Amino acid sequence: MPRIMAKASGFGLALIAAAMLALVLRPDLRLAARVAWNDPRMLPALADDARVHYEPEARACAEAVAEFAPRAVAQIEAAHGRPFAQPPIIGVYASYDNYASGNGMDDSGIAAVTRAGAALLSPTLCSKERKRLESVLTHELSHVHLSGWRPFGAPRPPQWFTEGLAVMASNGGGAEGVSEEEAAQAIRDGYRIVLDGRRWINFAALGFEREPPRDPRLDALTQRQRLAYRQAGMFVGWLRRRAETAFLHLLRALEAGEAFEPSIESAFGENAPQLWRRYVSEIVQQSHHDARG
Predict the structure, then answer these.
(1) What per-residue confidence (pLDDT) applies to 292?
(2) What's the rounded Cα separation, in Å, for the pair 226 and 203?
């Protein structure tokens, strides 16, 4: 028996050593381990709202989130046309390092991110960017809602659509500081987003047909991203106003796991680039009408 126990113990130590070696040799495994360790579901939840999980130092911010979370949830359900598939999880972080590990990108500079059906909020939203807390959370809940209904492994819609949907549904969350009129004027001036079909680009935002001029008063990356998100949000809003039944048909198709390109063409009778050209034409024509008026 002692010999068997010794062998078993030695085998267990060998497994631990192999796992540790794999973590050392595989950065992706190390990141996955940090993500799991810092998942918001591992954090305590508020007694009054079990959807809100928080690091102890962020309790006051978590309580503020709980105050407006019902309003944000109702707003997204109304914009998306159906309830959440399951109650959304919201993680409120006090540590930038833990947030960076939990968001899966090892990046503490992102204000918020949706991962594995949960909205993760950076400590910056509890401090210097506190005024954006509600709008950014509402934006992220749009992502949580869409991903919550889609089957695992379903093709992801292009980033311009998912971000545009979230901006539209949150009434401008993620595009703060750029008005619709400023974004429309940029479209008229030729600084238009490109409807890139890729499912994920990065937080540096979408591409433009022509790079917009730099405002020296603003951070270049932030300015560019918010202009892109605002234009995408305006276009998605236009699609909904154009034909709400078709728009909801598109959402239901995406939630069922259908691919984006055939789904939007089925819903609207045209593909995304054709619809975008119609939208741009309306923006330009409106400018001419106002000038004559």
Answers:
(1) 58
(2) 10
Angle between helices 272-292 and 220-242 (to 10 degrees): 90
Query: Looking at this protein, which amino acid is placed at residue 30?
Result: R
HSE value, Cβ hemisphere, 13 Å, CA-based, for 232: 29
* CA atoms of 245 and 242, how far apart (whole Å): 9
**pTM to 2 decimals?**
0.86
**Which residue's structure tokens are 């050593």?**
17
- Using alpha carbons, select from 285, 271, 282, 284 the residue that is nearest to residue 161: 271
Alpha-carbon distance of 35 to 100, in angstroms, equals: 9
For residues 119 and 184, membership in a common domain is answered with no
Domain count, the chain: 2
Which residues on adjacent β-strands are paired with residue 118?
A: 89, 115
Does residue 187 sit within a domain? yes
- Based on the fold, state whether residues 185 and 130 are members of the same structural domain: no
Domain match, 118 and 167 both: no
- Selection from 163, 115, 123 nearest residue 139 by Cα: 163
Please tell me which residue, 38 or 129, carries the higher pLDDT value.
129
Which range of residues forms the domain containing residue 195? 159-292
* Domain end residue (candidates: 106, 122, 149): 149
